[in-house]
Every structure is written in C-alpha cells, then in structure tokens.
Design a protein that fits this description.
GMP synthase activity; binds xanthosine-5'-monophosphate; Rossmann fold; EC 6.3.5.2; GMPS_ATP_PPase_dom; ligase; GMP_synthase; 510 residues; GMP Synthetase, Chain A, domain 3
Length: 510
C-alpha cells in the first residue's frame, strides 16, 4: 500500500502539531516539514496545508515560500498566516488589526455550496488567534465565510483548489474544525482514510523486513511504552535477530526489573536482563548536583550497553523508540536547541558504536504509539504506564544517592502507586511518584521521639508533560496512603503532598 499523505508546512505556529493530530484522526497520514526545508514532492502527496505563524506577513523578514510549487498543482489550504500569505502574494492586502483577536468567535455568513464549508453551520464557533487581518482580496478570491469583525474569515480562489481560513480548525474550540479538515483532506484532496494502526503495522513490518534483511539489531528497553512498542514491532519483522537489553540501573521502581523482564519474555522478545546496579551506584557516589547525577547515569548506561552490544556478534543496527514530536522538534523552524530539553534522551548513543539507527516509531505521536502497541497485543500494564524518567529514582532522591535511600524510596513509591491503582486513580493521573527529601523531621512513635526522613508525594495531570497541574487526589486517599507509608516504611515519619503546578514548578524535583 502506498501511503497517501498531506504535507503540512510549518511556519512556526504553536498549533502546527495539532493540525497533524487532527488530520491523522481522520486516518490520513501527514507529515510536518519546516517551510524553509520543503521535501521533494512525490505522487503520494495529495494536498498541502500552510500553518500559522507568530510572524507577520508584513515583516521584511517574514517566512515565505514559492507558492507556485503547489498552486494549481495540488489542493492547498492556508491557515491563519498561511491564508494571509496566499492573499498577500496574490495582490490582496493584510493589515494590523486594531486589536489582536484571540479566542472564540462565531462565523456569521457561510457559503454553504463551497466544498470547504460543507456541513459547517453559519454561527459555528471558531477559534481565532491573530494580530493581522486580510483587508482586501483579489477579484478571483471568493469570500466563503465571515465573522462580525473579520470579513475574510475564509476564501476560495476561483478555478483552483486553493483555500484560506483565518481561524484555527485544529483547535478543539473550533467546534466544527474537524468537519472542515475532513472536507479538505477527504473531499477536496481525495484521501482515502486508510491509514490505521493495523495498516501502519502491516506496512512497517514489510519495510523493516526489506531494510533489515538478515541483519541483527540491538535495542535498549526501558520498560516504557515507546521502547516496548518499537521492540515488538521490530521483533514482528525480524524475530530473534532483534536483541533487546534491559539494564537494571539500581534506580528503577520496586520489583520493576524482574516484573518488566518477565512480561517482555512472555511477549516472546529475545531479551537479556543486565544487573548493573553496583556500577551505577559507584558512578553516583557522592554526587549531589542533579545534572551531574543525570550525566553519570547516562554515561554508565552507555558503558554497560556498549559492553553488552559487543557481545552480540555481527550486530549492525541500533533500534530506538524515538517518536514524532522528538523528530519535529529537532528540525523545527526554531531550530533544534529551542525546544529540546537537555535532559531528554534524544540523540541515542555515541558515534563510536558505529551502528546504523532504525526508529520505526519516528512518524507517530504518543497516542498513535499506544494504538500500534494495542494492535501488536501489548498488555495494558505496559501501554498504560506512567512516564518515568531515564535517571529514575536518582532524581527523586534529593542530594546524594545511596542504596539504602533507594530502598526506602522504592517502598514509599510502591505503596503510593499501588494505592492509586487500588483506588482506580492510576489512570486518572498522568504521572505520579515520591521524592525523598534531604531533611529530617521530628515525630513521635509510641513514647519515643523520632528524627527521621520526610517524603513528598507528587501526582500530576497533564497532556504532554510540558505543562501540568497537581492532581486533586481525594483527601481520604491521601490520609490512608500517608498512614500506610509512615507505619510501614522504616525511616520515614512525615509525608507531604506537592501542590505546585508546572510552570512555575516542574514535575520532577530535580
Ligand atoms: P519535568 O521535571 O521537566 O519533567 O517537568 C517532564 C517529564 O520529563 C521527565 N523527565 C525526564 N525524562 N530523563 C528522562 O528520560 C530525564 O532526565 C528526565 N527528567 C524529567 C519527567 O519524569 C516528566 O515525565
């Protein structure tokens, strides 16, 4: 099956990824490319969407492209900045609005006969976010929707499949945005909506078989969703030629190493568990600075992985679970450094390993990775796991890390996480965990005065981890879990709950 696709050109809008998400929800594959690095057009490309932008088309250095690459050749939809660019480069006029329009607006008139506006009600709510407005359009531009304050809310260029809209159909506040995108992608571009998790698995497995042949691949499993799905997919393609390595770095959750290893084996993966706890504890000895701890763990991981990979004779590929947002951000309009946090483990392993890289999930968003995992039969226990940082409990133990502290925190964390699962709260929070604080507090137990450790519990709701709110867990639950921790974990006499949002705080404490 050749994959039909929509090309989305990114001019830097905060909503560009959302356009891609919405198109894919229509079961149509799409790719985002920066406006200044347009790929060669193939027959698979069925239409083009021009995104919004924080820039103004009136600026001398405004992002621009040669629109003749697409116009009259492929259906074209300009969104916000994209629409303004279409209008301006055709002889229309774009001016600064008296006030920046941001938020909900209602369409007034809508041209029902327009293919783009089919099924869109007049008075439909849309989401506006613009400082400039198209004030005049050339004679062959037909206005197909207006609002009270924006006369050119949508236009169609006569005799060509070129459209522009001032509002953002990709934002859920545009209540019929999905209908509009369906009109464009399916009716106007003619995409057949056959891109599904099943079709992705089928075509990716075939591609992997062709690409990898009888070659051997090594892949580091972390217990998380991405590496697990990547491994299962590659395994489906090449079976035992995929060698997985799961390293116990000593800062995993309680029983995680044995539990996860077991479930990987049940899945039929060729996986080797490597107990490297001591090596990691040695590397962490005396380190208190969070970045130093991260670096020590990263470096030790590479050493252990490299050693293990060398034991696999003739291995030539490194499998990775990189997903699409990492890829988009590394080639974004703003450049790689603007968006990638230094602590996120993008970039893989060092050059000296001389392995070619295979990343079968690098076109998928997180929820699509889960859907593919489901298709591949991965258990919910793996697919529904909370995110867990690569440096694990080491960045939840504030200050220096010792095996004794790890053990205390593992016990606390397990009581918290199991409590969340027992009470049906686990799937309602995005991420949860416990922090071991570098302070001791006074308490009483029986007749004895105690002077012991304090732990902080953290649970957040979030969509992508970039922003987060503290989870409003029921008081009764917090009371029970606090009692349980203090009664059962020796060395802890106080539990606090973190009620900070991100920003200004972060999810982890280090
Ligand atoms: P913060 O603390 O920045 O965390 O709000 C956002 C998300 O990233 C995870 N995180 C990490 N993941 N290596 C990782 O692989 C790290 O060093 C790291 N630090 C934070 C964090 O758990 C949350 O999901």
């Amino acid at each position: 099956m050749t994959t039909e696709q929509i090309l989305i050109l990114d001019f830097g809008s905060q909503y560009t990824q959302l356009i891609a998400r919405r198109v894919r929800e229509l079961n149509v594959y799409c790719e985002i490319h920066p406006y200044n690095n347009i790929p060669a057009l193939t027959p698979n490309v069925k239409g083009v969407i021009l995104s919004g932008s924080p820039s103004s088309v009136r600026d001398a250095d405004a992002p621009n492209i040669d629109l003749s690459l697409f116009r009259q050749k492929l259906p074209l939809l300009g969104v916000c900045y994209g629409a303004q660019l279409l209008a301006q480069t055709s002889g229309g006029e774009v001016q600064a609005s008296a006030i920046r329009e941001y938020g909900r607006a209602k369409l007034g008139t809508v041209t029902a006969g327009s293919p783009l506006m089919q099924g869109i009600d007049s008075h439909s709510q849309v989401w506006m976010s613009h400082g400039d407005t198209i004030t005049s359009v050339p004679a062959d531009f037909e206005i197909i929707a207006s609002t009270d304050s924006v006369r050119v809310a949508a236009f169609h260029v006569a005799n060509e499949p070129t459209y522009g809209i001032q509002f953002h159909p990709e934002v859920t506040h545009s209540l019929q945005g999905k209908v509009l995108l369906h009109n464009f992608v399916v009716n106007i571009c003619g995409c057949s909506q056959n891109w599904t998790a099943d079709s992705f698995v089928e075509s990716t497995v075939a591609q992997l078989q062709q690409k990898l042949g009888n070659d051997k691949v090594v892949l580091g499993l972390s217990g998380g969703v991405d590496s697990s799905v990547a491994a299962t997919l590659i395994h489906r393609a090449i079976g035992k030629n995929l060698y997985c390595i799961f390293v116990d770095n000593g800062v995993l959750r309680k029983d995680e190493f044995s539990g996860v290893l077991e479930s990987y084996k049940t899945l039929g993966l060729n996986v080797k568990g490597v107990d490297a706890k001591e090596q990691f504890y040695t590397a962490l000895t005396g380190l208190t600075d969070p970045e130093a701890k991260r670096k020590a763990i990263g470096k030790t991981f590479i050493e252990v992985f490299d050693q293990e990979a060398h034991l696999i004779e003739g291995v030539s590929w490194l499998g990775q679970g990189t997903i699409y947002p990492d890829v988009i951000e590394s080639v974004s309009v703003k450049g790689p450094s603007a968006t990638i946090k230094s602590h996120h483990n993008v970039g893989g392993l060092p050059d000296f390993m001389k392995l070619k890289v295979v990343e079968p999930l690098n076109t998928l968003f997180k929820d699509e990775v889960r859907a593919v995992g489901r298709t591949l039969g991965l258990p919910d226990a793996i697919l529904g796991r909370h995110p867990f940082p690569g440096p694990g409990l080491a960045i939840r133990i504030l200050g220096d890390v010792t095996p004794e502290k790890v053990q205390i925190l593992q016990e606390v964390d397990a009581l918290f996480i199991n409590g969340l699962k027992r009470e049906g709260l686990y799937d309602k929070v995005w991420q949860a965990g416990a922090m071991l604080l570098p302070v001791q507090s006074v308490g009483v137990m029986g007749d004895e005065r105690t002077y012991e450790r304090v732990v902080a519990l953290r649970a957040v709701t979030s969509v992508d981890g970039m922003t987060a709110d503290w989870a409003h867990l029921p008081y009764e639950f917090l009371a029970d879990v606090s009692n349980e921790i203090i009664n059962r974990v020796k060395g802890v006499n106080r539990v606090v709950y973190d009620i900070s949002s991100k920003p200004p705080a972060t999810i982890e404490w280090e």
